[in-house]
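User: Predict the full complex structure for these chains.
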Amino acid sequence: MADTQPNDAFDDELLSAYVDGELSGKQLAKVEQRLQEDSQAKQLVEELRALSTTLQAMPREAVGEDLRQAVLRRAEHSRLPKEKQLLGGARRWGWATMALAATLLLMVYQPGEEREEPKLASVDAVTEKTTPRPVPELRAPMAKPLAAVIEGAEVFEEAVAEAPVRIVHLTIADDAVDFDKLLASNGLVRIDRMRRKVTPKLGRSLRKKAEDQPLESAVDGGKKTPPVVEVLAEGTAEQLRNLLSDRPAGIHLYATRDGKAGSLAFGSLSSSSLDDAVQSEENSSRPAELLLRSDPGSGNADASAVAKEKKLESTGRIRVQFMLHPAPPAATNKKARSSKKTGGKEG
Amino acid sequence: MNDDVSPDDGRLVQNVQAGDRQAFGILVERHQDRLFNTLVRVLGSREDAHDVVQDAFVQAFVKLESFRGAAQFYTWLYRIAMNLALSHRRRRRPIASVDGAKSQAGEEPVDDQPGPERGLIDSERVEAVQAALLKLGDQHRQILVLREMEGCSYETIGEILQLPVGTVRSRLFRARLQLKTELQTLLPDEVDQS
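Assistant: Here is the predicted structure of the two-chain assembly.
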């Protein structure tokens, strides 16, 4: 292809427009005349046509799914006044009749093939009107933990199954749980996805939140840490529960308040324990956070009793954090993890 | 892209404005793949295109009350989408290429509708063309995609990008020259043969 050295930029623009069939009248006649006399112009037209052919031959990409449901759900939500988006009018309607407007952040760290022990952080979730989030102290994680946060939840007993839930997860790109499949198999709809490098700043932020040795080691040693992927999905609380039930580990519910994490334990996750915990918010007046986490080693307490005892205070917003621990690693991996641990900072 | 106003679109818009939200679902179904394809080429990423196409529809739905039909629905929708795409690009760090997205989503379906040259362009060439597109400025890439891949007329491009037709013509020409140069680097043999 010869270099184009137009002797008149405007005329050459006309050549481009000629290729597109966008000329008529005098301009068309002018170009046709030039093409008969100017071999360079003729060559440029041929090159532009070839370029068009190349571009038009690009394969067409299709979404691969029907977006109607996700779009309409988001669209309806967007039309609500801000305060209703956040609070769902819970107080006006009462807990028993309010739609759950929950945001759930699900984070997963999968540290790559060479690192069997995944690192679980707390959550840097959707940030709408969120006060700084207290982060529960995490215990030593098991393999491939997930963490999730439900945020801004106006929870009620009956409508909880109908309520929208948003899920975000972070995971190492290209080497992760197939969350699309996991979400889809539970009827949850992915509505957003972004890739983010684990920059030193992000690493510090996560480490600060988690205060968890394995995460720290993951981040500190993460000069080559693959990017994480955050996925935001929507579904109902019921679908969320179904998703959680896909995971074999025992799930325990913790509540945190005033920045002091891990102070309460509500026992294993179930519909009733979640609802009980949420119900306990009804009469409270200050923000509270609920951390729901997998911790097979602890078996604390009756959820509703603890909740009532503490009388969690609420402004109508709660956050619930989930940490799901899939099946423990295979025995062959334990050794490797054990050796890696010795290199990390003890939390 | 068909430049003719689809009367069905207009009717559906009226239905949505009258409160029939399901009518908007039909609009989504009708335009999602075409808009998605455009956004994949503009953004260079299936994931980002997936995000922006939904954002565009949501924004269109929310703003539909203000849509008076002076423009065609898809033109208006594309305008929203192109603006969102620009914002998206500015917000994001340098993004993963469409190839990276594909490596993650190998089984994601691709439109199998036959195109005139489909099958004549191999994957390596597709990647090279996409890479060359991503080297262009956002405005050049947008206008090229709208013209070459969506087949928009200059007038339609002007409506979508809110540019005079003369500007469309000159910008498109400059975009082509730049793309030609980029492809000379990435596909010297093929370009020379052309």
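Confidence is low (pLDDT under 50) at residues 1-7, 81-177, 205-230, 247-347 of chain A.
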